[in-house]
Amino acid sequence: MTVRCLPLWFALALAVVAGPARAETDPLLDVAERHLRLQTQGLPGKVTITLGNLDPRAKLPPCTAHEAYTPAGARLMGKTHVGVRCLGPNVWNVLVPAHIRVSCSYVTTAKPLGAGQVVQPDDLLILEGDLGNLPTGIVTDPARAVGKTLRNSLGAGQPLRSDQLLAPLVIRQGQTVRLVSRGAGFAVSGEGKAVNNAAEGQVAQIRMPSGQVVSGIATADGSAEVNF
To answer: Which CA distances in Å does 180 have to 10, 103, 173?
Structure first.
């Protein structure tokens, strides 16, 4: 008899077990582990994946073709789940519990820092830990923090997140800015006044002497570029 869909309680009836039960579900777990290794190969540091196993009381119908997937909303760090569905000859779906540890260095504050302060190298400490136990967007390379401005005040020893940092401004409202227009085989430049602040890579609006406002991309040297 073909099983079209398993009840939710069955899909979630999983536990970490050892011994003979693991051998019975090796193909399923192998597919799950390969999927997680593929999905986490771009993560920094050392990745360790520990999979749970099916409850030995849960007997799945035979399967010759497994397919793993990442459930909607599942994280690729910490305690999570990986889905495995059977494509045939029976049809079923289970969620396998997994624990993904990502051992890596990360950045914390060495001392209290104030909002608006520009981060310097001696403001930071490098620690080792499991990124799965840390906030999302944690900074792992101090070079990505040095020279940037803090959005808010931080106490000593706080992990630093990328959303707490502002890139330094290269264009400030009211300053004179060189605007460079580039196209195939030509480049034209002129000067105008910045209408807004902009960091490198952000859009800067420049008011030209004619009164026209032109949008360009702020560059590291404080000019703005328009490409045609």
So the answer is: 63, 45, 18
Token output for 178: 């060189």
Contact 98, 78 (CB under 8 A): no
Domains, the chain: 8-102 (no CATH), 103-166 (3.90.1210.10), 169-227 (2.30.30.760)
Identity of the amino acid at 142: P
> SS3 of 74, please?
coil
**Nearest one of 147, 138, 153, 160 to 199, comparing CA atoms:** 147
Q: How far is the C-alpha of 92 from the C-alpha of 11, rounded, in Å?
A: 9
pLDDT per 10-residue tile (average), the chain, 228 residues: 35 36 65 95 90 77 92 91 93 93 94 94 95 89 92 94 91 94 85 92 93 93 89
Neighbours of 109 (CB within 10 A): 20
Alpha-carbon gap, residue 86 to 25, rounded angstroms:
13
Helix/strand/coil (H, E, C) string of 170-204? EECCCCEEEEEEEECCEEEEEEEEECCCEECCCEE
Closest CA to 194 of 173, 178, 214: 173
**Kind and range of the H or E element at 150?**
strand 149-150
Looking only at the bridges linking them, the beta strands covering 92-109 and 46-51 are antiparallel
Helix (H) or strand (E) holding 30: helix 26-39
Total Cβ atoms within 10 A of residue 134: 19
Element (H, E) at 142: none
